[in-house]
Amino acid sequence: MLSFFIMSASLTFAQKNFSGRIIDAEDQKPLPGATIRAGDHRGTTSNQQGQFKISGIPSGVQFLQISYVGFETRKIDLETIDNPEDLTITLKKSTFQADEVIVSATRVTDKNAMAYSNVSAQEIGKQNLGQDLPALLNFTPSIITTSDAGNGVGYSGIRIRGTDATRINVTVNGIPYNDAESQGVFWVNMPDFASSVSSIQIQRGVGTSTNGAAAFGATVNVNTNEFRSEPYAEISSSAGSFNTFKNTVKAGTGLLNDRFTVDARLSKITSDGYIDRASSDLQSYYLSGGYFGKKSFARLNIFSGNEQTYQSWDGAPEARVKNDREGMLAFIERNGLSESQADNLLNAGRTYNSYTYDNETDNYKQDHYQLITSHTLHNNLSLNVNGFLVRGKGYYEQFRPDDNLSRYNIAPVVIGDETITRSDVIRRRWLDNYFYGTTFSLDYNSYKKLTANLGGGWNQYDGDHFGQVIWARHSGNSNIRHRYYDNKGFKEDLNFYAKVYYQFTDRLNAFADIQYRGVSHKINGNDNAGLNHQINKKFNFINPKAGLTWKASENSLVYASYSIGNREPNRDDFTEAIAQIQPKSENLQNVEAGVKGNIGNWVFSANYYYMHYKNQLVMTGQLNDVGNAIRMNAPQSYRTGIELETALLLGKKWRWNANATFSSNKIKNFTEYVFDYDLNDYQQFHHGNTNISFSPSVIASSQLSYSPTKNLEITWLAKHVGKQYLDNTSSDDRVLGAYFTNDLRAKWDLNPSWIKGVSLTLLVNNIFNEMYSSNGYTYGYIAGSHIQENFYYPQAGRNFMAGVSIRF
Length: 808
Prior knowledge:
By secondary structure, the protein is mainly beta. The chain has 2 domains: 1-93, Carboxypeptidase-like, regulatory domain (Immunoglobulin-like, Sandwich), CATH 2.60.40.1120; 232-315 and 353-807, Maltoporin, Chain A. Helix content is 7%, strand content 59%. The chain contains 8 helices and 44 strands. β25 (422-445) and β26 (450-472) form a beta hairpin. The longest helix has 11 residues, at 325-335.
């Protein structure tokens, strides 16, 4: 029925056809691979002779946009075209497009035979009212987002195809962003970074070779650099539920003396959060200066984020989320909660936060310095060399009631006949680090059949982990800021890659990509539990990729690729490991195959993927000597599924975008380990083939937009996420329930004569007040009986954000 509706709709409206060729304005040579777009949903590329044909353009589309890396983008009014079947469109080379040239080495196109999504600054801006960047990407394929505070501000996370942030490679302007030790990404350290983003590309699967952490589920490639020729200024403010406020000021000089540009941003975001006390106080700035010479380009980016967030990391017990009083009383008894802790649990409601100390906060500042350069060596050859430094320092503070003084290397306190071994303590756990290095690439484009890139990167991480006791009720002979552990981490990463794209015919092209990556990881000193580590591990990886793309017709293409990725364990895998069982590196073999096309007003794609893991690190229930959970290598596991996307123009006023992922995610012959306190040993439970945790079989989203006038857009946004398991046992009593949310967004653009523009935005999230949790965890043990403790992160019910943006 749906297919019939789509096909019928695509024939309902008047359509236009255009054809011609794209050439270099200077030497009149054809430009193969130029991108020709008509509106949001119709597009094609030019062939080896620079020829193109784009058909079925709806009558509501007013412009053709033609772009090619290294050339000025052109926009052509369709009403001015006299002969639509014999166009000759010239493009001028431009050093002002150097930002595009630099980032192109780590991005993919339809020639790469990979699954990817491009997200423009315009799309991000529609919803940029203060939430973290993951929330703004929530409706792209195969993505799940979550928020500790429950409203998308503060600590937020993202999963793609079920893989968590430690397996997602993130780069900013081609420069690695992932934390080198944990391999995770902490978006809270980049508040309002979305306001400085010009585009984002999300590559699903292994993706193309790039710098930084291994992509074991996806790559998120963020670009902030954008050339703007005219001066501008913009003031944006928004406010919403939970006392959430965002204020941003942006400005730029435009092109100065035909050579220079300067862009700047200053932001502040505050929120109480949905969860009790889950407040955020976030500040950031962005400053970028660019130099554009005839053959050389340089840009200096300096940006910083300073965050203070009240901790809400622990989630809420299942009984509290379900308002099960008997379950809460049992939880209180099992875990020995004090009277005040029990009172908090019983009376807090769905917004429960176990932390009540008034300064239970995370405090961290991260400064980024990027120098990005490019030099044209020849008409077909350019060299890009970049340098970067990331400076991070901060701590989180915790109140610890009645803690053991020996844990902090504080001697027992003797008062008269009493020997005190326990005390209330306030501690701070610090991270003080430097991350620096370089990335580089040599890019060749023959403008005919061959495109090639040689590149790589080198970086070092130097981080100090240490803890301080800043107050203790009984402090003995210790001093203020008594340091009770000190641990140093050092990591070096070197990679080289080579990529080749070859156009065999107008319809068939191939790519090959190989990367060498060498990693050295050292950890020395005592950790928070008092254990001493002397770890020195080295890894060498070869990561090949290859694929074919066939243009079946002017309106469709099919592709297939095969890639291999390898990944080292992270810091916790080493430090928390059982001495006799050391973690191994992980291996991923990734197959992608799909089809893309359009029929009239309908654009569609289908992508099949198979991701086979060897030695994937997963939670098994095992604990180390001090009781911390550890990850173990699962010999065999896989993810397989199909990703569907569609876009449909329903006349001039209606537009529908939708995507859905249907997948199967399995660990073969999974064994669970549960500690039995009665026997002081583990019991093993063999579960056979099980579902990988946090990997729903269905993820689907929809965006239905209505534009009653040219400047007003109203969009209904819907998201369904299927059932997820909290661990790898496939046990139905350890489940994160399916949820279905609906949001409503309205954006109105005004164009008064005295300024460039005003935009008004209203966003109502979770309009039907769905009570759901988007994340959780579980652990179990045996003490008389098998006890399983489930915890969840409830998300906000109905809430709103409203904003205004004024452009000068």
